[in-house]
Amino acid sequence: MALALLVPGGRGQLGQDVVAAASSASGAFGTSGDGLVHAPSSAELDLTDPSAVADAVAVFASTARDAGFRPVVVNAAAYTAVDAAETDFDRAFAVNASGPGYLATSCREHNVPLLHVSTDYVFPGDGTRPYEPSDETGPRSAYGRTKLAGEERVLSTWDRAWVVRTAWVYGEHGANFVKTMARLAADRETLSVVDDQVGSPTWSLDLAHGLVELAALVSSGATPSRVLHATGDGETTWCGFARAIFAELGLDPERVRPCTTADFPRPAPRPAYSVLSGKAWADAGLTPLRHWREALTAAVAAHAVP
Ligand SMILES: NC(=O)c1ccc[n+]([C@@H]2O[C@H](COP(=O)([O-])OP(=O)(O)OC[C@H]3O[C@@H](n4cnc5c(N)ncnc54)[C@H](OP(=O)(O)O)[C@@H]3O)[C@@H](O)[C@H]2O)c1
């Protein structure tokens, strides 16, 4: 039986790529033009409004089932302004914790699996080996605390809810690091980029394909581990990532100079080390995301970025 997806945050960077991945997934779907993928903007579905969430999930579940499809909710909505969250905690909490809680309640009511996207920022970032899903959390930023609260709410509310943590996401839609580097390359001869934060760049389209694969898996009744990590394989620093972007664009990578986090103080602390282990993802039988460097080449070749 084919899938139907409801994607709150459907006009965001990841949400739009989930729609693209769903419409290109062979077998699992009809076409998105058949209305099987519903990806509302925040104006169309505000996750902080519990009755709007209840109505949206109820209509989606019955429409999908009436048409012979298995419904799955993929939550790509979030308050993602990491620095602003330090002084706008209540709003960030409403979107990142309360809203996912409402979604989980409605999904439980209609027996709809829920995939909820989360972040490396739930970890303290002082690790020395890739974080496993079971490793102790300890967010250092307000954003990270709200995202961890969202994880806890979905997992405790609905036993068919899964948390997928990702990191360093870039894609065709919305602002991101790749686009910023391309813009700065046009404006400046040299630029300084932090070289003491380590993570794994993730093309949002690769992640989106992974989420669609996971949606198909859980909708068939499989029960993989409930917290999974999905990022590009491998690791680098922001400086290493920036140099790779320059190289990909045919520019001299030496124009990117390393600096330290202390050189660029930000309102929200960033994790120094936020590599996430993909072992649980692979153990669940899901396709590992490709190496971040290979993905960057593919994203540029596909004109997805910059
Ligand atoms: N970007 C990264 O580097 C990164 C890293 C780790 C994890 N993540 C996670 O990945 C997921 C997707 O992030 P993204 O990069 O796609 O972010 P994004 O481009 O900022 O998209 C987030 C979407 O959420 C929507 N949204 C905000 N408030 C909402 C509300 N009250 N109700 C419904 N929708 C709302 C936004 O819509 P409006 O703009 O219309 O408000 C936006 O379209 C998030 O869970 C994020 O925490 C991202």
Task: Describe what you observe in this structure.
- The radius of gyration is 19 Å and the shape is globular.
- The chain has nine helices and twelve strands.
- The longest helix is centred in the first third of the chain and has 21 residues, at about 90-110.
- It has one domain: 3-Layer(aba) Sandwich (Rossmann fold).
- The chain starts with a strand and ends in a 5-residue tail after the last helix.
- It has helices at about 15-25, 50-65, 90-110, 140-155, 175-185, 205-220, 240-250, 280-285, 290-300; strands at about 5, 35-40, 70-75, 115-120, 160-165, 170, 190-195, 200, 200-205, 225-230, 235, 255-260.
- Helix 2 runs parallel beside helix 3 (about 90-110).
- It is about 40% helix and about 15% strand.
- Residues about 30-35 have low confidence and may be disordered.
- Helix 3 links the parallel strand 3 (about 70-75) and strand 4 (about 115-120).
- The strands form four sheets. Strands 2-1-3-4-5-10 form a six-stranded parallel β-sheet, with helices on both faces. A two-stranded parallel ribbon has the order 6-9.
- With about 300 residues, it is of the alpha/beta class.
- Bound molecules: NADP nicotinamide-adenine-dinucleotide phosphate.
- NADP nicotinamide-adenine-dinucleotide phosphate (NAP) binds near residues 11 and 80.
- NADP nicotinamide-adenine-dinucleotide phosphate binds next to helix 1, helix 3 and strand 4.
